[in-house]
What we know:
The protein is α/β, with parallel strands linked by helices. The chain has two domains: 7-154, Four Helix Bundle (Hemerythrin (Met), subunit A) (Up-down Bundle); 165-336, 3-Layer(aba) Sandwich (Rossmann fold), CATH 3.40.50.300. The protein is 56% helix and 11% strand. The protein has 13 helices and six strands. The chain has helices at 7-11, 19-30, 38-56, 59-68, 72-81, 84-114, 118-137, 140-154, 176-183, 230-241, 260-275, 292-309, 322-336; strands at 165-169, 201-207, 210-216, 245-251, 280-285, 312-316. Strands 2-3-1-4-5-6 form a six-stranded mixed β-sheet, sandwiched between helices. Strand 4 (245-251), helix 11 (260-275) and strand 5 form a beta-alpha-beta unit. The radius of gyration is 28 Å and the shape is elongated. The structure holds guanosine-5'-triphosphate (GTP) and magnesium ion. Guanosine-5'-triphosphate is lined by residues 172-178, 190-192, 194-197, 218-219, 285-286, 288-289, 318-320. Guanosine-5'-triphosphate (GTP) binds at residues 172-178, 190-192, 194-197, 218-219, 285-286, 288-289, 318-320.
Amino acid sequence: MSEEILPPERAKHIQVPTYDEILERVGKRINVKRKGSKLDRELSRLQALRDIVISKTDFIRDLVRLLDSLHPFYWSLIEIEFDREELRDAIKCVSKARKMTDRLAEKYRILLLASESPRELNTVAREARGRILSLYKRCSRGLALLRSLVTFIQRLPGIDASSPTIIVAGPPSSGKSTFVSNVSRARLKVAEYPFTTKEIHVGHLTLGNIKVQVIDTPGILDRDLEEMNQIERKAAAALSKLPGAVLYLFDASSNAYMSLERQEKLLVNTVAKLVLQKKVYVAVNKADITRPERLEEAIRIAERAARKIGGEVIGPIVAASKDNSLRVAELIAKKEFVINE
Ligand SMILES: Nc1nc2c(ncn2[C@@H]2O[C@H](COP(=O)(O)OP(=O)(O)OP(=O)(O)O)[C@@H](O)[C@H]2O)c(=O)[nH]1
Ligand SMILES: [Mg+2]
């Protein structure tokens, strides 16, 4: 695993102020008592105003740098919640305001120096404050948007796209979170009802000299990307954008959320199209509670599906068993990644 600092961590120190916070800060600093002539005092106020708005919006540099270096997986997650165009406009608004601030500060410094009476000084100073602040007022919505973007990135899972990865996917309730919990220290919500997992989660598993990321994804249905809801799209983002191997879990049990045929369709028509070249391992889960005839039928269907997509069947598994899950993860990791014991 590289020591790269992941986006959620990098976003932690980025603080985006609201327009009101900028205004409040300016108000406090502008009113401190100053020494010197009236001209000196107004010049110093103008400088203070300039310094505050610039330092309050310094975050934009780190944010742009972070966004420019984001892996497409992260972008896919962001685009589920945010409009990329609106984000671009918000960044433009703040960057432009910063550029204009320096121009206006210089312009009004000269006008202050050229003022011929205290009254003119007052008028020029007031106008300078009004014009500089209005640059940021115009960005009020943009600032609020960028602030929620940063909070959103801070809460995303820390996934390193250059590290060995197993993406666990499949229909609702097939045991994905059970599996990931059992092979890692991640404590994930497991429940009987479908659509329990609503976010992408990551667990880590050390095998020999490597650290494998095991990704838990929300359950998906057999439909095209355009028809997927926001939660399913997160799974689609992981499947399509993260490099690694895929573990597809069939739910063999008689009370599975989907029929075995539909689980096959989900794998062949939806998952395979998303993962493109990635290797897909297919396991038939809940072998412990499935009647032998049904389990056989599930394996037959899983094999047929795997053949259609060039995948590999691992066989029946019990994700509820820690040992069994670890064996499956090891088997995939040994085939996919170079492990030195
Ligand atoms: N008997 C048995 N139950 C299992 C096994 N694996 C998972 N379950 C149960 O199946 C149910 C669903 O498990 P989850 O791990 O939450 O399934 P999931 O695929 O993450 O579900 P979603 O997040 O809703 O898509 C839970 O009640 C688990 O305890 C298994 O191997 N055997
Ligand atoms: Mg789950």
